[in-house]
Each structure stands twice: as C-alpha cells, then as structure tokens.
Write a structure and sequence with these properties.
The complex is a heterotrimer of chains A (266), B (546) and C (275).
Chain A lengths: L2 H18 L1 H4 L31 H37 L1 H16 L2 H11 L6 H15 L1 H16 L2 H8 L4 H35 L13 H6 L4 H6 L5 H21 L1
Chain B lengths: L3 H18 L5 E2 L2 E6 L14 H10 L4 E3 L6 E3 L2 E7 L4 E6 L13 H12 L6 H6 L7 E6 L2 E5 L8 H4 L20 E7 L3 E6 L18 E6 L3 H9 L5 E2 L4 H10 L4 E15 L9 H7 L2 H10 L2 H8 L4 E3 L23 H10 L3 E3 L2 E3 L7 E7 L3 H15 L4 E7 L1 H11 L4 E7 L9 H4 L18 H15 L3 H18 L2 E13 L3 E2 L18 E2 L5 E2 L1
Parallel strand pairs in B: 2-11, 17-18, 17-19
Antiparallel strand pairs in B: 1-23, 3-4, 5-6, 6-8, 7-8, 9-10, 10-11, 12-20, 13-19, 13-20, 14-20, 15-16, 21-22
Helix pairs in contact in B: 9-11, 10-12, 15-16
Chain C lengths: L12 E9 L2 E12 L4 E5 L6 H8 L9 E8 L2 E2 L5 H7 L4 E4 L13 H10 L6 H14 L6 H4 L8 H13 L5 E5 L7 H18 L2 E6 L2 H7 L2 E6 L2 E7 H6 L4 H8 L7 H7 L1
Parallel strand pairs in C: 3-8, 3-9, 6-7, 7-8
Antiparallel strand pairs in C: 1-2, 1-4, 4-5, 9-10
Helix pairs in contact in C: 3-6
The chains are: A mainly alpha (266), B alpha+beta (546), C alpha/beta (275).
The structure holds adenosine-5'-diphosphate and magnesium ion (MG).
Magnesium ion binds next to helix 1 of chain C.
C-alpha cells in the first residue's frame, strides 16, 4: 500500500467511524428543531450552523452520512452483482439466451420507470417507518439499475469467452464453471469496479429524486441526497459556505474509497 | 337593485388617485417586460383557461365591468352603468359610446350580443360561458339601442357582476374577429417558447385625468420563462421589470440586495391547509376513521400546531396564521370575527385526554390502546410545504403523536384524494382566485366532488355539513348582499368550529417591481402586478419624456 | 521423467475430417491422417489452409469458434465422435494437450504465471498445489524458464513472447499427454529461441515418448524435427509421407511450390540432411 492509500484509508475509517458514532459525537439529535435559531451561521453550539428549521447541520450531516455511506455502496454492490450475474450469464451462454437477455435489458432501460416506481409507492403502505422506506429505496435503486451494467458486462464476457486464453483453458481441460470463475471473472473486475464507482454517487443523488415520488428518505431523517439538494441554489452557498460540507465530504469519501480499494485490486 | 352609482364614484376616485400619483415625472412610451410561465394556449379570449392565456386576455381584452384589483369593487368599463332587475335574472347595460376596436371598427350593443351568442355556443366549450350557466335554459340578449342591451338569464345569478370581469367583448363585424380588441394592448408577435409581444392599442378609449390617451406604454413583452431563479437574475440585470410571485427566500435576498424593489402586498388569497380523510368507505382501520371523524381530535391537532412558527420558519415571516377558508385579502367576504386556532398544546392534550386518549411513555394512545400515528400526504417538490410538514411533525411529536410525512407526486396524490381515498391526512395549498363564495360551491356542498374531507355524499353525514349545505344554497339564491354575507359568515364559523380543514397560513403576496416602473402597486388579486396595465410607465432610455 | 512406452496396437490418433465455418463451408474436406505413438507428424501448409482448424477438431473445440466438424477421430482406439463433453474434458490437457498459436494472447492477462500453471495442473490433479509445485518448477527449468517464485508472481504483461511460449509449452506437458498438438509454436520466436524450443520438443518426444502433431508453415523446422509430414492445401491433404521423402521428392505440385518458396540459403536437397 502506498502512503497515499494509507492516508486515504485512515480518512475513510475516520469518515465511517464518525458517521457511525454520530449519536456520540453530536450532542443534539438530527431532528431537534431549535426554532429560535433557524439558518444560524456556524458557531460554537452549531459548528456547521443550522437549517431553515433550526436543526443542527452537523448532526444532520453525520446521520445523513450514516444512511448514505452504508446504503449507497450496498445498493451499488447489489446492482453490480445483478448486472454481473445477468451480463455474464448472457455473454457466457450466448445464442438465444444472450439475445433474449439483451432484448430484456433494452426493454428495461426504456421502460416508463416513473410509472413502475409510482406503482411501487402505491403498493407500500403510507405509514412505513423512515428506515423501512430507506431500505426499500436503496433496494429498488440496486435492483432496478442492472440493465446498463449488464450490457457492458455482457459484451465484455462474450469477448472474453471468445478469447484465445479461454480457448486454451478449455483445451487444457478446464471445466466450464471454473473457466468462468478463474479466467473470465477476474478480467471483468475492472469493468465491474467502474460500474460500482459510478453507481455510488448516482445512487446518493437518485435517492433525493426518489423523494419526489414519496419513496426516498422521509422527514425527519436526513440524507446526503437531501443535503446536497440544498446546493442547487447557488445564491445560498455564498451566504453560508457550510452548506458545501456534504459535497466536500462526499468527494473525500469517494476518492478515499476508490484509492484504498482499487489499490487492493492489484 | 343596483350598485352602479357607488361603483362609478369609486372608479373616478381611483383614476384620479392614479393620475395624481404620477406626480411631476411622467413618461410616455417604452416597453415593459415581465415573465410568464408558459406559452398561451389560446389567443381567443373566450377560450382562455391557462394563466398565460388569461394574461393575454387581461392585457388585450375590454370588458363591461372590471373588478378593481385594489379596492375589490366593481367598476364600469365598457358599460357606463348597469342595473340588475327581475329578481337577479336580468341585467341591463348602458354602454360607453364612441369606443372603437383596435382595428377601428366601432363598438356597439351588437358586439355584446354577438359575444354572448359566441360564448354560450355549446360547440365552443368556453369556460367563461360555463360560469354564466345558472340553470337549464337559454341566455337571451335584447339589443335596446346602439348603447343599450339587456341580458336575461334562466335563473337568478347572485354576484353576477364578477362574471363580467372575465367576459371579453369580441367584435361582431371586424374582419379580424377576436384579434380586434377593446383593451389597452393588442397581441403582436408570438415566438413560441420565447416571448409574446403586445403593442399599444391606438384606439383605446380610456384617457387619464389630464386627458392623455392611455396606455402610456408603447409595448409590453411577456417572456416565457419557467425558472424562477433565472427570472430573478434577469430582473437584477434589468431585463424584466416585474416579478409577480417570489418565494420567501428569493424575496429576502432581493430585499437585502435592493430594498424598495421587493414588495410585499400583504396576505394573498393563497392558503395552506391540512385535512383528515373522513370518507366512510376509505380503506383505513376503523379506529383511525373514528379519530378523523372526531371534532375533538381535529381541533386538538389544530391547537397543537404552532402556526406562528410555520409563518416564521417556513415562510421567513412572509405569511400570517390562517383562521378560515377566506383569506383577509378577500375583503368583502372574510369573516373578520374569526381568529386562528390558538396554539395551546396543553389544552389540546387535555382535550384528547377527556376523550379517553392517554399519553404513556411519550406515546399517545387512543381509548382502545392504539398508538396514535398517521401519515400526512403532500405533493413532492414543494420545499415550503416540506418544511411545514417537518414543523408539524415536531409539534405533534411533542403530543406523543407520530406523523409520517409522505411526499407524493401530484397525480398520485390526486388519485388518492379523489378516487381511492387511500390516505389519512393531506397537506395542500389552496388558491381562491374568485372572491365570490359562489365559486366555492363545489367545495362546501356535501354532495360536491371537491368536498375534500368527505366528497360526494348522498345526504349530508353530519348535522353541521347539512347546515353548511343549507347556508351555501341560501347565499347563492339570495340577492341581498348582506344576506349572502351573513350566510357565508356562518359557514366560515362552522368550518372554524368543526375544523374539517385545518387552515394553517395565508401566504403573503411577494413581488418585485423595478424602480424604473411607475404606478405599479402589487395587490393580492391576480394579476398581482399588471392589474392596471394602461397606467404603467417605464422610465428607460427608450422612452420619451414629455 | 521417463515413462514406459505403451505398446498399443494401431495408430495413436487417426483422423478423417471435414469441417466448415458458417461463412466458409469447406474449410476441411476429407482430411485423413494418422499419428503413431511417439511419432512427430508435421502438418504443413500455407496460412489459412485449415491447420488450426484441424487442431481444434481433434479436441472437439471447433464449436467454440463457431465451426462444425464431421467425420471420425479415433484416439487410442476410441472413437471420440461419441465422447461426451465430460469425457472430452478428461482427455483435453491430459491425453491430448495443445500449445496454441499466439503465445501472449493465450495467457490470461489477469492471472499470474503461477496461477495459470496451477489452473492447468488443477484441471486433472487432486491434492495440494504446494506439493506439486516443486515438480512444476522443475518443469519450468526444463523449458529454460526462471524457476523462482518471483517469476511465478509475474503477470503475462511482464514476460517476453519467448517466455510466454515456453510457459505455454510447460503448461501443455504438465500432465505428460500422449499427444501434443503444437500449433506453430515457433512462429513468434527468434531463431535462437526457436532452435531451443525445437530441441525441447525433440527431448520431450524422446523422454516421454510423446507424440507430437507439429503444425507449421516453417519447412525448415519441420525438416529438423519431424518423422513424417502431411501437406495441407485448401482443406485437403495433398501429400503425406516420410519427411525426407517429401523434401527430396515432392510428388504434389503444391508441395513443390512450398519448397520452392523457401529462402535459398541452402539447396533444398541439403535440408533433409539436417534431419
Ligand atoms: N472462426 C472462424 N470463422 C470463420 N472462418 C474462420 C474462422 N477461423 C478460421 N477461419 C477461416 O478458416 C480458414 C482456415 O483457418 P485456420 O485453420 O486458422 O488456418 P491456418 O491455421 O492454417 O492458418 C481460414 O481461411 C480462416 O479465414
Ligand atoms: Mg493457424
């Protein structure tokens, strides 16, 4: 491990630890409304200031990190696993299975998602707990985003299947499942890793968009998607640079995560 | 019965005041620019339904009677006077003479008759026409001379004057059809997605106190701009001079940057409200239905909500706690005796406890021991409403009530509200564009589809709803405005007492007016800023100062 | 590394094949030849004439490339036509092994050399890899590769073409197959390395009594190594016989053209003498 990776690792641990220990670090709850001091600038009591309702931004950031940091990578992992499973099956099986799967992926991408999500929302009772709503949201994100990744992985897998080294492996008597596991999968890892890295920030932000459909993370729970949403209005950042904190934290988190884990790949 | 004398007096005064307020500085010509949200769907004034088309209609159309947006009184425009007779089924107009359409064709009683024929043509499907249909039967017009016309309705039409504010007179003879107008401007170039131009109507009949022909402006340009942030940016650059609606945040930012340009016209006609689903057939557990149908429960929730905090935190102070269905901005019809439900959580809790609810370990339970928890559906994408919901959530949490806020997309919300009734409580905004209670019949009648808390009842399910039904019908057929007012005041009292809707706040009408615009004064009524377009002036390089 | 010569009767491999690709109907048209136990048979012919196709047919792997084969393959007296995929898997790598044509692309870029050797070994062996390792290192030594752990930890992009070729040869002979199909194994090598590889094949043939189907368009190496040669032209065997005979008295005009196309460093008649 390089020094940079070590530093990144320490930072990453720090981010994860602080968000897990949010309850200890932040004396106030993310939902307590200090109604007498809304929109407070950073000060001793509120290191990052407060939001419009007087809620401590630091507490919200820490709790929001907990939600987003744990669930977005989990959902990204789920999504990549699904893409890989479907993509590799298609690429490896070839023939009509491949054609059918890719047609399904095309269909899936072009489906009117909004309607499906609305249907899902209609099926969930209105009185779900915020945590259940979050889990459903990220599960949906993970499950529904397989198609583009599966296409990429499918084409990778089918090229690898036709490769000279796969042929040689067969010629040396390597059984098919082992060929897949030992020869094809390791070569797909960079592709899958790329899918994973793209998915995390996308999911963090889509969670906020799903909130539009009554699916995302409901009040009063904070999420990075919601916190980042406040950045849409550039006029406010000028007034309170503390608003940038979630964006900075997200960037730090992603780059650390990447530098630590992609190093370990090699 | 007639009100014309008083009304005309009022008008003269308004014109005079407007003329005097011009002061020494007087500017003729120039172009006024503001933004509208979308392209007008139609330029036919009789078909206008969307806001952009109504803007076109307002700037270009001439009407017999106008509602003065500032005084909320009726003022004569193309009608010099009018008289309502025959038990409110007939109105006789005396028309202004010597008035020309924008293309030079003269205006007469025939045009009014033609307008009525056209607007009532069932094939035209005019929304304005629909508002005149008081009952089965024809609307008859009788031209009694070039400047006199009588209109007879099949049934009495209480408060009919306000309907004429919407009715643009179209020409019977002009080859340009409805493009020939009687208003201060004529619609010019329309570049879809970009702008609509309006040019000065050289034949406009109105003159100012000094005898100068109106309007002062040469042209008006309505830019099509959906993005509110961009709109503010363009305002700051001087590219548009008016903004009719600002959200509290942008308003505060503008007041900080250029005080004097951000203008608060006080309480608007918009209010926020919350209601519980009282539909008997709703797919909800029966114990929840029992809560929602209990007046004590509704009143307790209402008293647990800190309306002052809603105004202060969700609206940055640019709203007032609401007392009832009619905002103070509706001066004629508001029941001024009503005050907002007081914020008294202790009393609210006591009220619930008297009904058998009890608070244990921070959780409120109903007499059967069910945890008091319900969901509050609202439309997603509205930041202010999300804040209101979060504030109410905390207020109720202090009472041991768990509130789950569920933002839904608008179509789903409407579906639940009107078809499946699969919701518990709902938070929405309401705009009463029309001041007259007759426009709210579809809300208050228990048989009505918009009787949101329990729509389409075959017979009123509660005595108080039966009483509201009776009062609303009484006011709609009464012709004496005092009787109407008394009946509607009582309706407001019942609604206050029974709290089927918990009225939360009345937003302020927040607007922006550039310093270069003279005579613009924002009002609560639509169109908030250019309600007097003929008197607006713009002081810029383009204009010629006289 | 000696193994007793099996005294089977009849040829080790006997082939009678036709093959086609979807867009090329007659790649092989009735190709017939035998390989005797312990024999090195050369398969020569211009590139594109179907040599690699034959190699794949023998392993019943033509399907991987989208082709179809008809005809009979008898190996050690067994008709492979009816062999199941499972049975074929047991034969591939253990009974019949292959050294592929392009060394670098035949190694898995994502796997270390050690892991690739291990995979080849694991395909037909049970037990601990660590226990088998010394033998594998010895094998590497015998193909003139560095036999330290450091080399095993390299990935294909860190070794040379010649080394790759020898890794592939080592992988092919791990299980001491009866028949080694070497598909142009020297094409990627410089002359000196080529020479070493040819010596290696000769040694393996001698020491393990391993039959080799030596596919090449390089007549010089064929002459140096092979007992017999078969000449393939556009999917047909046009001549088959002792290597000496073919070089000295080519019967078929195509064979003659092949021989004439050789760079005239030495006289064609002299080539045979190197054998
Ligand atoms: N997968 C394939 N699909 C179609 N044609 C192929 C394929 N592989 C090889 N061929 C064609 O079959 C012929 C024989 O190929 P090959 O056996 O590789 O020749 P050689 O090994 O003798 O150079 C060539 O003309 C080649 O173009
Ligand atoms: Mg070849």
């Amino acid at each position: 491990m390089t020094t940079a990776a070590k530093v990144a690792g320490v930072l990453l641990l720090a981010v994860v630890a602080t968000s897990l220990a949010a309850g200890l670090l932040s004396p106030v709850s993310y939902e307590t409304q200090f109604r007498e001091s809304p929109n407070a600038p950073p000060c001793r009591q509120f290191p990052l200031g407060t939001d419009e309702l007087g809620r401590d931004r630091l507490a919200r950031l820490l709790y929001g990190s907990r939600v987003s940091l744990l669930l977005a990578p989990a959902a990204a992992g789920l999504s990549v696993a699904l893409s890989a499973l479907i993509g590799i099956t298609a690429g490896y099986a070839g023939g009509w299975v491949e054609r059918a799967t890719m047609a399904a992926a095309d269909l899936f991408v072009s489906l009117p998602w909004l309607f499906l999500l609305l249907t899902v929302r209609a099926l969930i009772p209105l009185n779900v707990t915020p945590w259940a709503s979050i889990l459903i949201t990220f599960l949906l994100l993970g499950v529904l985003s397989w198609a583009p990744g599966a296409r990429v992985i499918r084409s990778g897998a089918s090229a690898l299947k036709r490769s000279e080294f796969a042929l040689l492996a067969r010629a040396s008597g390597c059984p098919k499942p082992r060929l897949l596991w030992k020869h094809i999968l390791p070569n797909l890892r960079p592709l899958m890793a790329a899918q994973f890295w793209i998915a995390i920030p996308v999911f963090i932000l889509s969670e906020a968009n799903l909130g539009m459909l009554g699916l995302g993370i409901a009040e009063p729970l904070p999420s990075w998607g919601g916190l980042l949403g406040e950045l849409q209005d550039p006029g406010r950042i000028a007034g309170n640079p503390a608003l940038l904190a979630p964006a900075v934290l997200l960037t730090v988190f992603l780059s650390c995560f990447q530098s630590v884990f992609s190093k370990e790949d090699k | 019965m007639s009100f014309q004398a008083a009304s005309i007096g009022a008008t003269r005064r308004v014109v005079l005041v407007a003329a005097l307020s011009l002061g020494a500085c007087f500017v003729q010509g120039g172009e006024l620019r503001f933004s509208i949200r979308s392209d007008p769907k139609t330029f036919d004034p009789l078909l206008a339904q969307d806001e952009a088309s109504e803007t076109v209609r307002y700037l270009t159309g001439g009407t017999l009677i106008r509602i003065d947006r500032r005084t909320q009184k009726f003022i004569p425009e193309l009608a010099e006077s009018w008289q309502i007779t025959a038990g409110g089924t007939k109105v006789v107009f005396k028309l202004r003479q010597g008035v020309l359409f924008s293309d030079g064709t003269p205006f007469s009683a025939d045009d009014v008759a033609h307008t009525f024929r056209r607007v009532m043509d069932p094939n035209l499907h005019s929304p304005v026409g629909d508002s005149f249909r008081s009952g089965p039967g024809e609307i008859k017009t009788e031209v009694q001379g070039p400047a006199r016309i009588a209109v007879t309705f099949p049934a009495a039409l209480a408060g009919m004057e306000r309907l004429f504010d919407q009715l643009t007179i179209v020409s019977a003879r002009s080859p340009k059809k409805e493009r020939a107008t009687l208003g201060p401007f004529v619609a010019g170039e329309h570049k879809p997605g970009s702008y609509v131009m309006f040019r000065r109507n050289p034949n406009y009949w109105k003159k100012d106190a000094a005898g100068r022909r109106l309007p002062y402006l040469d042209s008006v340009r309505a830019d099509i701009q959906q993005n509110r942030d961009l709109e503010l940016l363009r305002f700051k650059r001087g590219e548009v001079q008016l903004i009719d609606t600002l959200d509290p945040e942008l308003f505060d930012r503008l007041s900080a940057d250029s005080p004097g340009e951000a203008r608060n016209a006080g309480a608007s006609l918009e209010s926020e409200m919350l209601w519980f689903n009282q539909v008997a057939a709703a797919p909800l557990p029966s114990y929840k239905k029992a809560w929602f149908r209990s007046k004590d429960f509704r009143r307790a929730v209402s008293s647990a909500i800190n309306r002052g905090d809603l105004c202060r935190l969700a609206y940055k102070g640019h709203a007032d706690p609401a007392a009832g269905p009619i905002s103070g901005a509706n001066r004629l019809w508001v029941n001024a005796k009503l005050t907002p439900h007081v914020f008294e959580p202790q009393a609210a809790l006591a009220r619930l406890q008297r009904g058998g609810f009890r608070l244990d370990a921070g959780t409120l339970r109903d007499p059967q021991g069910n945890v008091v928890e319900f969901s509050l559906a609202t439309n997603s994408g509205n930041k202010t409403r999300a804040r209101i919901a979060a504030l109410i959530q905390q207020d109720l949490a202090k009472m041991g009530i768990r509130l789950n806020v569920v933002p839904l997309d608008f179509p789903s919300l409407i579906e639940r509200m009107t078809r499946t009734y699969d919701y518990e409580a709902c938070l929405l905004g309401l705009v009463n564009v029309d001041l007259d209670p007759n426009a709210q019949m579809n809300v208050w009648l228990s048989s009505a589809g918009n009787h949101q808390w329990n729509p389409k009842q075959k017979t009123p399910e509660t005595p108080w709803e039966a009483e509201i039904d009776r009062l609303m019908l009484a006011q709609s057929s009464a012709l004496d405005p005092k009787k109407r007012k008394a009946a509607f005041d009582r309706v407001q009292e019942i609604v206050w007492e029974e709290a089927p809707f918990l009225y939360l706040v009345n937003k302020h009408a927040l607007a922006a007016v550039s310093r270069s615009v003279l005579n613009a004064s924002p009002v609560a009524l639509w169109p908030r800023l250019y309600w007097n377009p003929e008197f607006l002036q713009v002081a810029n390089q383009m204009a010629r100062t006289r | 590394m000696l193994e007793t010569v099996r005294n089977d009767f009849g040829p080790l491999l006997s082939v009678s094949l036709s093959a086609s690709y979807p867009d090329r109907p007659d790649v092989l048209q009735g190709v017939q030849f035998d390989v005797q136990p312990g024999e090195i048979l050369a398969l020569v012919g211009q590139s594109g004439c179907g040599k690699s196709t034959i190699a794949l047919c023998i392993l019943k792997l033509l399907g991987v490339k989208g082709g179809k084969a008809r005809g009979a393959i008898r190996f050690q007296g067994r008709d492979l036509e009816w062999a199941t995929e499972r049975e074929m898997r047991a034969i591939r790598g253990r009974e019949i092994a292959m050294v592929p044509q392009s060394p670098l692309s035949s190694l898995n870029p994502a796997l270390r050399i050690g892991a690739q050797l291990k995979e080849a070994w694991r395909a037909h062996a049970e037990g601990e890899w660590e226990a088998a390792k010394p033998r594998i290192l010895q094998l590497l030594e015998s193909v003139d590769l560095p036999c330290d752990e450091g080399f095993l930890r390299r990935v294909p992009s860190q070794i040379s073409v010649g080394q790759a070729q020898r890794v592939l040869i080592a992988m092919a002979v791990i299980h001491r197959p009866r028949l080694l199909i070497a598909d142009e194994p020297t094409s990627a090598l410089d002359l000196i390395t080529q020479r070493e590889v040819l010596d290696l094949f000769a040694r393996l043939n001698r020491e393990l009594n391993m039959a080799i189907l030596y596919i090449s368009h390089d007549l010089l190496s064929v002459a140096a190594l092979c007992h017999r040669a078969a000449v393939l032209e556009r999917g047909r065997i046009v001549e088959c016989g002792g290597a000496e005979q073919i070089f000295e008295r080519p019967a078929h005009p195509y064979t003659r053209r092949l021989i004439d196309a050789l760079p005239r460093v030495r006289q064609p008649s002299g080539i045979g003498q190197t054998f």
